[in-house]
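Posted in: Protein Modeling Q&A

I'm a second-year student putting together a small comparison for a lab meeting, and my supervisor asked me to include a predicted structure for Multifunctional fusion protein. I've never done this before, so apologies if this is the wrong subforum. The sequence is pasted below exactly as I got it from our records. If anyone can share the structure token output, I'd also love a short note on what stands out.
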Amino acid sequence: MKIKVCGMKHPENINAVSQCEPDFMGFIFYKKSPRYVLDKTLVFAKEMNPNTKTVGVFVNSPISEVLEIVQEYNLNFVQLHGNESVDYAKKLYNAGVNLIKAFQVNKNFDWDKIKDYKPFVNYLLFDTATKSYGGSGLKFNWELLRNYKEEIPFFLSGGIEIDDAEMIKEIDLPQLFAIDINSKFETEPGVKNEELVNKMINTIRMKSKYQVNDKGFYGEYGGAFIPEMLYPNIKELQESYEEIIQSDSFQEELQALLKDYVGRPTPLYYSKRLSDHYKADIYLKREDLCHTGAHKINNALGQILLAKKRNKKRIIAETGAGQHGVATATACALMGLECVVYMGAKDIKRQAPNVARMKMLGASIVPVTSGSQTLKDATNEAIRDWINNPTDTHYLIGSVVGPHPYPDMVAKFQAVISKEIKNQIKENPTHIIACIGGGSNAIGAFYHFLEDEDVELIGIEAGGMGIDTPETAATLALGSQGVLHACMTTVLQTEDGQVIEPHSISAGLDYPGIGPQHAHLHKTKRVKYSNITDQEALDAAHFLSHMEGIIPALESSHALAYLEKMEIKPTDRIIINLSGRGDKDLETLTKTIKE
Ligand SMILES: O=C(O)c1ccccc1NCC(=O)[C@H](O)[C@H](O)COP(=O)(O)O
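Accepted answer (user: helix_wrangler)
Welcome! Here is the predicted structure, written out as tokens:
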């Protein structure tokens, strides 16, 4: 969450507060405010550290005056804090000004009036309705924010004080982008208590215990156990990825692609027949409806934009079920980049339709004939290629695995799934269920619910022929701590550390490791992990096809099959992440049709 410190006035105080690196600093250009800027304030604002964006706050000022001030002091944003009309916002926005439109909220606030401003603002700000417009030190009832249904991110403002930090972190509205602090942090109007501001910033920014730490670890899992040749490349990626992917220009491009190219948001579909059958409310998050047929495209597009920003010309990828290979080939075609996909020879045979699609999209496919000829071996070969081509090549990893920062980066790109779910539901589900190979669709579906301890999160591994047989891919059920594909995680391995060949009917789950965040979520017991056999997954695929007219991927069928194992209560609201569609599995599925 971002932080804006508003109402700055005195140079020494600005200097001190800027040491805490707030994301935004606000300067008041409203003459009636006791925080109205001084000439020397503005000189200072011009030289602000670029990590802190400057915001000029105006109340019903003439447009020409606003434009003059923006230009003279290089303001990054203008905050309209009065009764400025849509037409007023449009004129400024069309003149190239980045806008934050503030609204004064009370119980009579008409949330519909925001709609008309949407095309012309970057952010909204919700403040308490008072006669003085702002800086009142008064809070409004934050429950009212539940009425906000638009997608534009907003700043929460109005009387925020240090003791509110924990409560703010609990607010589960995905559009909550930043908080705005002001009078409750002052020793006098326009003078902030630097220590208190610092404390607030640190508390708000403190990372969740379920997310990656500054060293790239989730508890004892994660890290980057990489060969020396890759060190400069990975280091540069670690240092730059967050700034690049959080930048406005990156997000604008990505969000536009997700909407217009992928077809997001994907529906959260209430399955009436499944609900009747299981006597509870069952919803399917339809990632199978994404362009290319699975959630993998969310990450492929994110990483391809990142690769472009880092001037990479060549993309390599590994693939198991072929969904990630197809997503990568698609993204490369879209961006005009060379694409090489490593795929196990066994997977090439069992996922023929996806192999054909990748070829159609112009990708070169390299068959991997070592080991079990599946995903693990394809990943080994992709890493080998990367070591040989560290500078011009981006390795577009398809799951929340690999060296830091990949698990976190891929999780952030897939988090769009749970972000949308949060917008699509009125109240939290009781359960979210997702299948797990490396674990990217599951992390995506869980991400924004990790702090909501009332939601039971369930990850389903591939049990294969059963976890009491050697033919299984149930890593968390049977594995132990070890390093696989450059990160510390849980691995299916012998006592002396040799990786055991996994087995699953579904190529996308046929992996002997798991993302380090899942290993941590397993250890901390935040997520419950279980497993489903090949046969149970097949049965679930046929069942959904007949019940809903939706043919699911074999991977997603593992999550669906878990419904048979649960003790379901009539009050349950269960979301299954339907990560992909089953066209690629038709050969396997049709062989098992019962006449
Ligand atoms: O701060 C002011 O004096 C002010 C006066 C008139 C219009 C806007 C003003 N401030 C804008 C802000 O963004 C404030 O931070 C916001 O109103 C919250 O202030 P507070 O209630 O003091 O936390």
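A couple of things worth pointing out for your meeting: The CA atoms of residues 137 and 183 lie 6 Å apart. Residues 218-246+293-407 form a domain with the Rossmann fold fold (CATH 3.40.50.1100).
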